[in-house]
Amino acid sequence: MIITIVGGGSTFTPGIVKSVALRREELGLTEIRLFDIDKERQDKVGVLVKWILENDLKTDIKLTVTYDVEEAYKDASFVFAQMRVGKYAMREQDEKIPLRHGCVGQETCGCGGLAYGMRTIFPMIKVIDDAAKYAKPDHWILNYSNPASVVSEACRKLRPGARIINICDMPIAIIDVVAAAMGIKDKENIVYDYYGLNHFGWFTSIQYKGEEILPKLRDYIMEHEILLPDAYLKDKKALMSNNNTNTEQNRHTKGSWYYVWKGEYEIMKNFPETLPNTYLNYYLQCKEFVEHSDPNHTRANEVMETREKNLFDGIDRYLATGEIDESVFYAGSHGDWISDLAVALMNDTKARFLVITENRGAIPNLPYDAMVEVPAYIGKNGPEVIAQDNIPLFQQGMIMQQLNCEKLLVEGCIEGSYEKVLKAFTLNKTVPSMKVAKEILDDMIVANKDYWPELK
Length: 456
Ligand code: NAD
Ligand code: G6P
Ligand code: MN
What we know:
Elements: E1 2-6, H1 13-22, H2 24-27, E2 31-35, H3 39-56, E3 62-66, H4 69-73, E4 78-81, H5 87-100, H6 110-134, E5 140-143, H7 148-158, E6 164-166, H8 170-181, E7 190-197, E8 200-208, E9 211-212, H9 214-224, H10 230-233, H11 236-240, H12 258-270, E10 275-276, H13 281-284, H14 286-291, H15 299-321, H16 333-347, E11 351-358, E12 371-379, E13 382-385, H17 393-415, H18 418-427, H19 434-447
Parallel strand pairs: 1-2, 1-4, 2-3, 4-5, 5-6
Antiparallel strand pairs: 7-8, 8-9, 8-10, 11-12, 12-13
The structure holds nicotinamide-adenine-dinucleotide, 6-O-phosphono-alpha-D-glucopyranose and manganese (II) ion.
6-O-phosphono-alpha-D-glucopyranose binds at residues 108, 146, 168-170, 173, 251, 299, 303.
């Protein structure tokens, strides 16, 4: 049984490999293949992956590190996709260009996310086509590649029926933080209800062993004026430091992530009934997020200076000395989530997951063809979505604006239509006017000349 990781040179590859290798018996896993277009980067990550499989976990799982499409996909049962098209250099542009025009600079939200989407649509379609050609007929592609919302809409439109499930680790990262704040150790006993688009949703219920804990959580957030566990807050300076290496704290609480946990308080102070996804901060507090952003040093810089640097320095040290420091890579919820999803598909467990999938009436007052993020039971034939009721006007209004923005972007990208892409940028809630949308788009066309289709 073969799992192919596309974007094998990703900073998340070692963590995913560890999670999946720990589940090798449930999966019947015999081989892991890494596939990337950046040889130097993937070769280095491959060194660490080999160490994890052979020395750390002492498995006999075969490792293949390849740059050849056929060798990568041949007879694979699962394809885990996690490409960053344009790598961190382009993430930096996605974040910095909008900030220059006074708009939110974020890799998956606002104009930055739209730019990243335009780079990723066609490479993702290629993954689907390569898998269809070479992988097992009943393969599944589990996709983390961002921006997952735009990517999933493009896949729905261009390759309907493709065996792909788009996923995100943010809701479970939020549940990790909620569990830590509430003193819950057995987070597997937490069940939640949620609806929205990717990076654009709300928790309507969080139950622990059958008890609704959202009211208790709300009280906690109001009292602490932030959604972070006490233990994390002891030393605020360390918490906000980019180089915060306290391993008890998950990566989502480091550096500028601090502001979104603070923002959860700001949002719930006004709208207390639901727990928002942290990404809603970029839409509901656009002005404030621009104000505390540093246009010359964004999250892309933080990641390059920490997660990416620590990983590749750690690999170089291992190559020079033979000694490994496991803290150079992150293993945890991110890898567990995609690996557990593979286990559910493989073993037809009907376990409950949040997935990004076509609405098909699950939320009656959203379009039938919207790619929504909702709970589903996962069996061998894919997600069985759990139907929900109509959603409130506020959330529905926000979702419709974002959904139509993303749909226009995908249409514009496929048709090569400047006007449609400009409409998408103009419709985004983080952009104040058509003129600003056009200025940002024109700068982005120049920055993305090696990646975007031509817009006429
Ligand atoms: P990274 O830059 O470290 O790794 C991405 C890798 O993808 C690079 O090695 C790059 O060479 C490779 N790549 C780029 N284009 C490719 C292509 N066409 N084919 C094959 N490989 C290609 O980035 P990272 O920070 O580790 O993130 C990896 C991806 O995972 C990103 O898309 C990121 O947004 C996504 N991500 C998603 C979630 C989620 O919740 N959905 C969570 C974390 C990360
Ligand atoms: C969360 C989101 C991902 C996003 C990541 C960014 O995990 O769900 O979609 O890629 O955050 O984290 P980073 O540490 O790269 O800023
Ligand atoms: Mn995500």
